[in-house]
Amino acid sequence: MAVSFVQRRFMSNALQKWAYNLSGFNKLGLMRDDCLYENDDVKEALRRLPQTVVDERNYRLIRAVQLSIQKDILPKEQWTKLEEDVMYLQPFLKEVKKEREEREAWNKQY
Fold first, then answer.
1. Rounded to whole angstroms, how far apart are CA atoms 14 and 26?
2. 57-96 as b/e, with b when 16 or more CB fall inside 10 Å?
3. What residues does each domain of the chain span?
4. Please, what is the Cα angle at 79 between 73 and 80, to 5 degrees?
5. Cα(92)–Cα(86) distance, rounded to whole angstroms?
6. Exposed/middle/buried for 45, CB within 10 Å: 0-12, 13-18, 19+?
7. What is the Cβ-side half-sphere exposure of residue 16, based on CA atoms within 13 angstroms?
8. How far is Cα 29 from Cα 34, in angstroms, rounded to an integer?
9. Cβ neighbours of residue 68 under 8 Å, at least 6 residues apart?
10. Collapsing DSSP states into helix, strand and coil, what is residue 10?
């Protein structure tokens, strides 16, 4: 018996929410882009972000460190929800990676 598209989509959403909540960073109020390893590409993308977004990110990181030190988590109503988690750094990161790859290709040719 075939599973309808709506049922598969629901199962997919339920699985996504389960995995997202299992990851744990949302219990500290962090977003996915807050958890990226800061290599050169990420540092350049962060440099290009508007200052208000950087300030919000820094606040979330400081709060998460404080909660970690206290061995505590936020109240459930303050957890970051999957629907609220915005990939704010990804457009900048894609642009930085593309520029780096173009620069590397240029340097190989000349």
1. 16
2. beebeeebeebeeeeebbeeeebbeeeebeebbeebbeeb
3. 27-109
4. 135
5. 13
6. buried
7. 10
8. 10
9. 28
10. helix
Contact 32, 72 (CB under 8 A): no
Chain segment 14-52, per-residue pLDDT in tens: 888 999 999 999 999 999 999 999 999 999 999 999 999
- The C-alpha atoms of residue 97 and residue 54 are separated, in whole angstroms, by 20
**Phi and psi torsions of 86, nearest 5°:** -100, 135
Q: Which of 24, 37, 14, 12 is nearest to 80 (CA)?
A: 24
Structure tokens that stand for 40 in this block: 């050169």
CATH number listed for the domain at residues 27-109? 1.10.1090.10
Structure tokens at 55: 């300030």
* Amino acid at position 16, single letter: Q
- Choice among 1-5, 81-85, 97-101 with the minimum mean pLDDT: 1-5
Query: Tokens representing 17?
Result: 């929410």
Question: Token digits for 31?
Answer: 């977003």
pLDDT at 10: 59
